[in-house]
Amino acid sequence: MKQTVRSFSIGLMAATLMLSIFYWVEPREMSGKTPQLSENDMISKLKSDGYHIFTEAQLENVKNEAKATQETTKKTDTPEKRPGKVTFSIASGMSSTEISQMLADAGLIDDVEAFDEYMRNQELSRYIQIGEYEVPKGMTIEQTADIITSK
Predict the structure, then answer these.
(1) Digit-coded pLDDT (tens) for 86-103
(2) How many helices (H) and strands (E) does the chain have?
(3) Could you tell me if 74 and 117 are in contact, meaning their C-beta atoms sit under 8 angstroms apart?
């Protein structure tokens, strides 16, 4: 047993000695000292790697252009409020999916699945009221659901 402990401690001391030698003898190479690049060298290196380099003013211009484009896209993508109202009836026994399809056919909602999922997630399907409804066009899914679930 004594021999085993001595062998183990000699192994630990040898490993420590080797690691210490590598640490103290080669610190300059292991420290990762690389030559410092000038600002122009960095820019040319980044450009050659496919990066775009902007000054603060150029970056602000790009951000402003992107924001303007986004606002223009938002204005053209939003559906126009369609004037007028649509009248429809919900009969007894109609499922939420059938009602969603009927609303889409009437032009009140754009996405049948989104409306049906909203009704399920909000647990509104069981509160749908039977009857006849007159709903203005251009309402959101939430507004339409609110109308048919509370008469």
Answers:
(1) 888 888 888 888 888 888
(2) 7, 2
(3) no
100 touches 115 (CB < 8 A): yes
**Which run of H or E residues covers position 142?**
helix 141-149
55, with CB counted inside 10 A (0-12, 13-18, 19+), is exposed
In a domain, 145, yes or no: yes
pTM of the model: 0.43
pLDDT, tens digit, for every residue of 127-149? 888 888 888 888 888 888 888 88
User: Does residue 68 sit within a domain?
Assistant: no
Q: Are 37 and 48 spatial neighbours (Cβ–Cβ below 8 Å)? A: no
| Residues 6+ away with beta carbon under 8 Å from 42 | none
Nearest to 148 by CA among 105, 91, 83: 91
- Is 105 part of any domain? yes
Residue-by-residue DSSP string for 4-64: HHHHHHHHHHHHHHHHHHHHHHSHHHHTT--PPPPHHHHHHHHHHTT-----HHHHHHHHH
Whole-angstrom Cα distance, residue 136 to residue 111? 17
CATH code assigned at 129: 3.30.1490.480
